[in-house]
Amino acid sequence: MPNDIRELGKLIRMQLIHRTTLEAGNTGSNADMKYGDMTQVPWWRQAEDDNFPTASAIIAELFRRDKRGFIMDRKSEDKLVLTCRFTSILTVSILKAKGIACRVRSGYAPYFPDTGGYSVDHWINEYWNEKEKRWVVIDVDGCLHDTGFDMFDIPVHAFDYPGKAWLDVRSGKVAGKHFLNAEPAVGIKVIGWALIYDFHSLMNNEIIYLHNVRYLHYKWNRLSESDKKSLDHLAELLCNPDKNFEQLQKIWNHEKKFRILSGGLLGAGK
């Protein structure tokens, strides 16, 4: 595997097709077929997120479909149909295996074309540049899009992290409807989902979309003031996770409500 981050990211991206690309076919952002020829993908293939939730499962299936593994000329029919969360966990796993500190972040991307002015739910990576002593923001899932800036060194302000998004909506600085989730849903609820995804990702527990904390499962539309203040505190800490990492770890290790999940076969609980 390449050591150059940009080369590696593009190689990873060429193994995958986003479900929206498959749905749109060879139109829009794929009119030039940079993601592959969607007409060659078997008609019965759908989004495969639920089938390959871990990096090891993704890698095993890539080798099953083409024994050469990670290749730039992978046939469209042999690519996996996976969304940004899965691209980011594959990226983080490979970089960590190479000894490069890396982490997954969940939030919102306002930089994609044709989003109707929304900031859409998205997962990215940050890797530690030892020479420059900083986290570099990269978007492997979106790296082939024309956004006007380098997708392998994204300006920090270009990505809407959920901690700041939550606090901005709570304070009235930004309208909740600005943030869109693929459900589709908008508003404080979907920012709350990303808040939990981001927190768990920073704790090396990149949960799947269908999972979220049990105590909020039925409460997002009727949060108590105590709930809101508790989430405000978590959001404040997530705005600077490096500075506040010990406090985040303390919450992770001791606050059950932010750790126990619902979704799928996990108990919903009321």
How large is the radius of gyration? 19 Å
Largest beta sheet, briefly?
Answer: 5 strands, mixed
The structural domain count equals: 2
Helix content, binned percent? 25-40%
User: Separation of termini?
Assistant: 46 Å
- Which structural category do the helix and sheet elements fall into? alpha/beta
Number of helices: 8
Total number of β-strand segments?
9
What is the element string, with H for helices and E for strands? HEHHEHEEEHEEHEHHE
The share of residues in extended strands comes to 5-15%
Mean pLDDT: 94
Structural write-up:
The protein has two domains: 154 residues, no CATH class; 76 residues, no CATH class. 33% of the residues lie in helices and 14% in strands. It contains eight helices and nine strands. α3 crosses α4, α5 crosses α7 and α6 crosses α7. The protein starts with a helix and ends in an 8-residue tail after the last strand.
